[in-house]
Q: What sequence folds into this?
């Protein structure tokens, strides 16, 4: 049987918890990609190609270019 903390003069702590001064030993961060990043790269190349083509064909106007 446990003695009650009030009778022994100790502070009551929740059962199952303890003080951990440094949480770095308990912390672990894992990053796992959910998909390949290649489609994002393909979209970036496609958008850049459309913008460059539009500039070369004059669709964006004279003031849009460098």
A:
């Amino acid at each position: 049987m446990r003695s009650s903390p009030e009778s022994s003069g100790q502070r009551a702590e929740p059962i199952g918890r303890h003080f951990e001064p440094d949480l770095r030993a308990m912390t672990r961060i894992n990053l796992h990609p959910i998909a390949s990043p290649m489609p994002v790269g393909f979209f970036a190349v496609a958008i850049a190609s459309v913008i460059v083509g539009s500039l070369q064909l004059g669709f964006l106007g004279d003031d849009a270019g460098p």
The mean pLDDT is 77.
